[in-house]
Amino acid sequence: MTPSLPQRTLARLVLVRPGEGAVLFFSTAYFFLLLFGYYLLRPMREAFGIARGADKLPWLMTGTMAVMFLANPAFSALVARFPRRRSIPMAYRFCGATLGVFYLLFRFLPGHGGAGLGYAFYVWLSVFNLFAVSVFWAFMADGLDEDQGKRLFGFIAMGGTLGAIAGASATAALTARHVDAGTLLLVTILCLELAIRCVRTLATRFGMGAEAGASREPGPGLFQGLRLLAGSPYLALIGLYILLYTITSTFLYMQQGQIVARAFTGAAARTAAFARLDVWVNVLTLFTQVFLSSRLIKAAGMRVVLCIMPVLSLAGFGALWALPTFGTLALFQVLRRGLHYAVDRPAREVLYIPLGPGEKYKAKPFIDTFIYRAGDLLGTWTPALMAAASLPLGGAALAVSGAWLWGGVALGGLGRRIGFRDRP
Question: Fewer Cβ atoms within 10 A, N terminus or C terminus of the chain?
Answer without folding.
Answer: N
